[in-house]
Design the sequence.
């Protein structure tokens, strides 16, 4: 069933403020005290109030607008996903609004902006959310689909790949190539993708009685991964193989090893990434990696979000899609 319509008068009554104060709170650049703003936002969340600020929705009750929330477009994997999502929603007659959130931390200010924009649905692209934040979004009654992240909350639909299995394969495969000093460059420590890929990788090594030699954090960023690689290979006994939690960091490691340490990939060091971005297959990189089924991920996520927008009583769904190892030239050939 659709939620009962809540008016600004209802919010004003619960918050103990005037109706005009509610209007100012949800009007960009309008002056309102922080204490009043907090009262209004708390009451809005409790009632599930969404201010109607788009003129068209006054008539149609439909803004035909989707919010896409991400923290960065530096990673080509996210840009690729955004392009595919944009094309799908454009074909369905929807417009996209972009919002950028911190990699981790306080999501509430971004949520407030989304609410004021009167969007019909939200696509969370690689955004890390806590249970509390997920519940805040759900309480407003806005359809939401999280893609390439997971959150321990049943009320929000999620689409991801099997990150644990991808990490597990990477660990076991590097061992099968005869490597004994294997390092890991992780992503954002609070993200589900980092945690799941690392857990699978460590278990893959442990299943053969081995341990990870060293772990550094690259935050899914090229520059941070360069620094992580320098730290790893400044050791008296540097790794002879690396698993990076995404392709961007794997390519950063490859550049540093070749151009600063004078090492050969894969003769001196094997490297595995995760994602399979288009540049991973370029001859100058030829990166062995774990392919995420990006086309399927986007198709499921966008179609799921559209169903939740158009149906009266949509059900949340959680999808974990299989990964595919892509064997290329950045790893040694298997023995024999």
Sequence:
């Amino acid at each position: 069933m659709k939620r009962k319509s809540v008016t600004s008068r209802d919010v004003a009554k619960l918050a103990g403020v005037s109706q005009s104060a509610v209007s100012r709170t949800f009007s960009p650049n309008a002056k309102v005290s922080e204490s009043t703003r907090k009262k209004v936002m708390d009451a809005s969340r409790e009632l599930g109030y969404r201010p109607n600020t788009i003129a068209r929705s006054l008539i149609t009750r439909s803004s035909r607008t989707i919010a896409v929330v991400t923290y960065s477009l530096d990673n080509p994997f996210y840009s690729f996903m955004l392009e595919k999502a944009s094309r799908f929603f454009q074909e369905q007659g929807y417009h996209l609004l972009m919002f950028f959130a911190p990699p981790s931390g306080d999501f509430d200010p971004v949520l407030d902006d989304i609410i004021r924009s009167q969007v019909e649905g939200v696509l969370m692209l690689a955004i890390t959310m806590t249970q509390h934040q997920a519940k805040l979004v759900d309480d407003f009654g806005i359809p939401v689909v999280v893609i390439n992240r997971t959150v321990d909350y049943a009320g929000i639909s999620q689409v991801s790949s099997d990150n644990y299995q991808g990490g597990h394969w990477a660990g076991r495969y590097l061992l099968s190539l005869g490597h004994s000093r294997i390092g890991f460059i992780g992503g954002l420590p609070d993200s589900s993708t980092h945690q799941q890929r690392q857990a699978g990788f460590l278990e893959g090594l442990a299943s053969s009685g081995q341990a990870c030699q060293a772990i550094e954090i690259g935050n899914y960023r090229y520059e941070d991964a360069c620094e992580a690689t320098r730290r790893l290979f400044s050791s008296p006994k540097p790794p002879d193989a690396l698993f990076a939690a995404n392709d961007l960091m794997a390519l950063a490691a490859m550049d540093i090893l070749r151009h600063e340490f004078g090492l050969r990939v894969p003769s001196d060091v094997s490297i595995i990434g995760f994602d399979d971005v288009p540049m991973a297959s370029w001859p100058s990189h030829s990166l062995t990696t774990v392919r995420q089924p990006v086309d399927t991920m986007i198709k499921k996520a966008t179609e799921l979000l559209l169903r939740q927008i158009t149906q009266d009583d949509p059900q949340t769904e959680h999808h974990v899609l299989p990964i595919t190892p892509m064997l290329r030239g950045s790893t040694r050939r298997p023995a024999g």
In short: The longest strand covers residues 65-70. The CA atoms of residues 242 and 271 lie 5 Å apart. The radius of gyration is 23 Å. The chain has two domains: 57-161+295-323, 163-291.
